[in-house]
Structure formats: structure tokens, C-alpha cells
Design goal:
With about 130 residues, this protein is mostly helical. Helices cover about 55% and strands about 10% of the residues. The chain has a 3-stranded antiparallel sheet with strand order 1-2-3. The two termini are about 15 Å apart.
Length: about 130
């Protein structure tokens, strides 16, 4: 029974390590995640980062002649919202395999949670001699 138990523990450790590696890979992808929102008329382009933070706003040089200040502001907000929604969807897709079914991501991780701190460390099973 001792050898059988050791082999079962090694199998469990390998599976744990495989899943931990997958989670770390998903987190690495999350850290690099960006999305771009572009208005239909091409006047406004917004790039957001992994938590929806605005990284870049590009305005077509003709935007001031084509849009009023309020239209420009609305277009910027619309593109930030579109890009942030895309980042949120991609985040859900990347994390879905690791989150219990039916549990919203924000409840599981929280807005300011550091997933890196939650990542498991590999398990090493020492062979008995």
C-alpha cells in the first residue's frame, strides 16, 4: 500500500503542478492584455490595459472640425467603455477554467486582489529511500 500511496501522491502533485502552470500562464496573459476601441468614423481610438485603465487616446486631426466638444467627449467615453468591455470579456475567458462555476470573477478575486499572490507554488514529492 505504501508504494501505491506514493504513486498516487506523485500523480496528484503532477496534476497540481500542471494546473498551477496553466494558471500562471493565464495570469501572464492577463498582465499583457490590452483592447482597442475605435469609433466607426475613425475619429477616436482608445487603448486600455488589463484592468481597463486608459493607456492611449488617439484623435484624428480632423476630429475638431467634425465633432463638437460634447460629441468628442461622448465618443471618447464610448470607446473607453467598448475597450474595457472587451478586456473584461477576455479576462473572464482566460480565468473561466480556474473559477468555480457560477461564481462571479469580481467576487472571487476582488478589484484590487493580486492574483500573483494567490498562485500556488509547485509541490515536490520527495521519494523515500
Amino acid at each position: 500500500m505504501g508504494e501505491e500511496f506514493r504513486l498516487a501522491m506523485e500523480d496528484m502533485a503532477r496534476e497540481y503542478n500542471r494546473q498551477a502552470a496553466q494558471l500562471k500562464q493565464a495570469y501572464a496573459e492577463l498582465r499583457e492584455l490590452t483592447a482597442v476601441g475605435r469609433s466607426r468614423d475613425g475619429m477616436v481610438t482608445v487603448t486600455v490595459g488589463p484592468r481597463g485603465q486608459v493607456r492611449r487616446i488617439e484623435l484624428n486631426p480632423r476630429v475638431y472640425a467634425k465633432l463638437s466638444p460634447s460629441e468628442l467627449a461622448d465618443s471618447i467615453v464610448e470607446q473607453v467603455s467598448a475597450a474595457t468591455g472587451e478586456v473584461a470579456e477576455r479576462t473572464k475567458e482566460l480565468m473561466a477554467p480556474f473559477v468555480p462555476e457560477g461564481l462571479p470573477l469580481q467576487e472571487f478575486f476582488g478589484e484590487d486582489a493580486s492574483l500573483e499572490a494567490l498562485l500556488p507554488q509547485p509541490i515536490e514529492v520527495e521519494a523515500r529511500q
